[in-house]
Amino acid sequence: MTTILRTIDIDMPSDAVWAKVADTSQISELIGFVAESSQDGATRVCALEGGGELRETIVSVDDDLRRVMYSITESPLNMEFHAASMQVVDNGGKARLIWTVDLLPDAAAEHMAPMIDSACADMKTALAG
């Protein structure tokens, strides 16, 4: 299993960042390659720019830990396993977002890591604005 770990420092109070991250139905407002997102209960569907979609299960939204856990259950990336979390912590009056992604097969990281890096840049811009 491969783990992708990214940390983003955001010049915004952590409570405000958490409010946006916790609103899991609005992920398309934070990540540029997600053209549109919809959510029905714990199932989120993300339509991707250029075609294709991700089907995800939102495992938990924990306000005490300020952590969203989710799993991609269907994607064009042919992953056998995917589990991820986004956690927002206070960083001296600003926010730090910690994004952890575990996936199989290891080769899927070749495609997933650049997507995560792109999403991190998008989120930093969207959340700081």
From TrEMBL:
It holds the Pfam family Polyketide_cyc2. It comes from the Bacteria. Gene3D superfamilies: 3.30.530.20. InterPro entries: Polyketide_cyclase/dehydratase, START-like_dom_sf. This is SRPBCC family protein.
